[in-house]
Design goal:
The protein is of the alpha/beta class. It is 34% helix and 18% strand. The radius of gyration is 24 Å and the shape is elongated.
Length: 403
């Protein structure tokens, strides 16, 4: 059967749509879309973009399939455990729709490779799961002039927005998709830094591995990202330009807020600056000594210029908690596992510490949490009145060394 006949049959139901038609479908068949992250958001986004007939789909992910992924990452099965996600996702999409070309990058997106990968595509879908990558992708898209479809999830809630695409309002069918909407629209473009100018401090926002996430929420948000990419590619409908759409699953509620361009350059101004920008591990790279705001202030305990705390490894943690008068605090939420009975400690959840005046003054304190992220924030709060140490890699890292 000829390829054009395959196209006609496969996409017939959407081509029949008033406001879509052959012109929009042809634009989509010519589109090159890059999806960064083949996890909870990337899987549904990739599946629907492939099903709709995107011409080329790029997939960036260096991670491997884990059993804990399978409740939300729907392109994989238990038999795929340990396999590279980008490769497995591409295999699935080729089986599902052989008419779509896939290009997989089994690498972590970094300052060194981001510009060269992203510049090959027309539309970028950010389905990543950490702040460092989100800021890196945003800044690369700003420098390269690429539309960015943003999505994120946590627990029962998700967000979607379209960044770096000038103009707002309805794009009539057949007006040209990406190229013409960027060229002809007059409104200023917003980007991720207009919404979140500064990355959060380490531990300020819990990851899905700490806070949890409902799998179907990633499916909803990832599908919305696919929809926004389709709108941008074809020029059909009204993309979420200069808007942030938030969805809450427990109440099935949506609300939309406007985003205004700041007019400021808070990211790298050019490619050279981008390649040197300190994106860190997702929220900046915390060092051994942290100032009150969580910024790196040096390697020693002097000259910080503001109250600070030290990060310690498991061996130093054991030494400190063995000393008389040292207070050990678990800042995890009540009921979190594993339960710790190997040493005496006090439990003061970070959520409570955030909302109340710290109850300690002039003490030597060691704080720990599950993985070492939340304890960074807790240490910063307590350091204003105390000498504070924070356990690197959290109690899970400490327990791993006990076996």
């Amino acid at each position: 059967m000829p390829k054009d006949r395959n196209h006609h049959a496969r996409y017939q139901r959407q081509v029949l749509l008033e406001g879509w038609g052959p012109n929009a479908q042809q634009k989509l068949l010519q589109a090159r879309i890059l999806v960064i992250g083949a996890g909870g958001l990337g899987c549904p986004a990739l599946q629907y973009l492939a099903a709709a007939g995107a011409g080329v789909l790029g997939i960036v992910d260096d991670d491997r399939v884990a059993i804990t992924d399978l409740h939300r990452q729907i392109l994989y099965t238990a038999a795929d455990e340990g396999a590279l996600k980008a490769e497995k996702a591409a295999e699935f999409l080729r089986r599902m729709n052989p008419l779509v070309n896939t290009e997989s990058y089994c690498v972590r997106l970094t300052n060194a490779n981001a510009l060269s990968i992203i510049e090959k595509y027309q539309i970028i879908v950010d389905a990543s799961d950490n702040f460092g990558t989100r800021y890196l992708v945003n800044d690369a898209c700003v420098l390269l002039g690429k539309p960015l479809i943003y999505g994120s999830v946590s627990r029962f809630e998700g967000q979607v927005a379209v960044f770096n695409l000038p103009g707002a309002g309805h794009m009539a069918p057949g007006t040209g998709g990406v190229a013409s909407s960027v060229a002809t629209a007059g409104a200023a473009s917003t980007n991720y830094r207009d919404l979140f100018p500064v990355p959060p401090d380490p531990g300020e926002v819990l990851s899905c591995s700490e806070a949890g996430v409902l799998g179907v929420v990633t499916g909803i948000i990832g599908s919305m990202q696919a929809l926004e990419a389709l709108k941008v590619a074809t020029g059909v409908g009204s993309p979420l330009i200069n808007k942030l759409l938030t969805y809450h699953a427990l109440y099935n509620s949506f609300y939309e807020v406007s985003i205004l361009p700041s007019g400021k350059i808070s990211g790298p101004a050019n490619a050279a600056a981008f390649r040197e920008w300190p994106y860190g591990d997702g929220c900046g790279a915390p060092g051994k000594w942290h100032g009150a705001a969580g910024a790196l202030a040096g390697e020693g305990l002097s000259g910080a210029g503001a109250p600070g705390f030290a990060t310690v490894d498991a061996a130093r943690f054991d030494e400190l908690r063995a000393q008389e008068g040292v207070l050990v605090i678990d800042v995890r939420e009540i009921g979190e596992s594993p339960f710790i009975d190997q040493f005496e400690h006090t439990q003061l959840p970070l959520s409570r510490l955030r909302s109340t005046d710290p109850p300690y003054t002039g003490q030597t304190i060691v704080v720990f949490c599950q993985s070492g992220k939340r304890s960074l924030e807790a240490a910063g709060i307590l350091a204003a009145r105390n000498t504070v140490f924070q356990l690197e890699q959290g109690i899970m890292g400490w327990l791993a060394l006990q076996s």
